[in-house]
Amino acid sequence: MELSQIAPAKLNLALHVRARRADGYHDLETLFCFLGDGDRLVVRPADDLSLAITGPFGAGLPVAADNLVLRAARLLAEETNIASGAHIVLEKNLPVASGIGGGSADAAAALRLLNRLWRLDWALERLAALGAGLGADVPACIHSRYCVASGVGDVMTFAPSILPNRTPILLVNPLQTVSTPAVFQGWDREDRGPLPTQPSIAELSGTTRNDLTPSAINQCPAITGILEALDITGAELVRMSGSGATCFALYRDAVVRDRAAADIAARFPEYWMLATHSVDHDFSG
Ligand code: C5P
User: Which residue in 34, 21, 39 sits closest to 149, CA to CA?
Assistant: First the structure.
């Protein structure tokens, strides 16, 4: 038996950082949405736990014991006292450390797949609670559908998506990694206020923010050029996701997105780009 699943990339449509906590983490409010593209995981039965990494960005990610996919697998095995192992193949399609989920989405997909391979029959909520110990974004990635999150990003409220399904989206990444802890550390500690509840796409631009943008730009000035270039492509919203450096643009029309993709590719031929769309996944079945 072999099981395979996508690890959908996530976007933070908005990310308001509210406070630095005593444990070094940050209280925040964010709107997560998920994409039709991502890394892919395959699992098959084995005596031990093992991991192989393939795909266009596989070379940048060594198979180490602290790999989030292996940590997720060990955590679930320990929690359930399962004697079986698994061989996991991670097809790394997205740039590493780029603000669009990556490791968190991979860990979440590993938990979902091993739940099935090992016939544990855990509900997504239980997997999400376990996954919170692996990373702040893992619980949202377990569900991979639009939600509002608070806490460190792990307290989710599900609501109807403010994006039409399959909203055309363009991702652009300068292929320079930024350090998430350093970007949070560089936040200026000014609380600029809460997220509005269920803003429209039009309201997102004016009334919401990604408060990590200035700090990410300090680490990676190329972000400024990407945001400026996307700003003139007719997008409904242009923003950086998470701690960067991936920036995204939302479009009403896939034709406009594809024209933007051609313009950006001509202007920044060395950057990574992905024309994709939003999806509310259903992993409950
Ligand atoms: O939880 P995760 O391992 O994905 O977070 C990576 C790093 O980002 C944390 O070690 C922490 O430095 C920072 N972080 C934070 N506040 C959050 C989420 C992440 O300071 N809410």
Answer: 34
Q: Give the residue whose CA is nearest to atom 13 of ligand 1.
A: 181
Closest atom of ligand 1 to 27 CA is 21
User: What is the 136 CA–ligand 1 centroid distance (Å)?
Assistant: 6
Report the predicted TM-score, pTM, of the whole model to 2 decimal places.
0.97
Residue by residue, DSSP assigns 40-85 as EEEEEEESSEEEEEESTTGGGS---TT-HHHHHHHHHHHHHT---E
28 lines ligand 1 (CB under 6 A): yes
Residue 26 neighbours by CB under 8 Å, 6+ apart: 17, 18, 19, 20, 152, 184, 187
Q: Tens digit of pLDDT for each residue in 151-164?
A: 999 999 999 999 99
Decide: helix, strand or coil at residue 90.
Answer: strand
Q: Does the C-beta of 211 come closer than 6 Å to ligand 1?
A: no
Give the whole-angstrom CA distance, residue 8 versus residue 278. 10
Distance CA 203, CA 237 (A): 10
> Contact, 226 vs 174, CB < 8 A?
yes
Q: At how many degrees (to 10) do helices 254-267 and 222-231 cross? A: 140
- Across the range 269-283, mean pLDDT stands at 98
Report how far ligand 1's centroid is from the alpha carbon of 216 (Å). Answer: 14
Alpha carbon nearest to ligand 1 atom 2, residue: 135
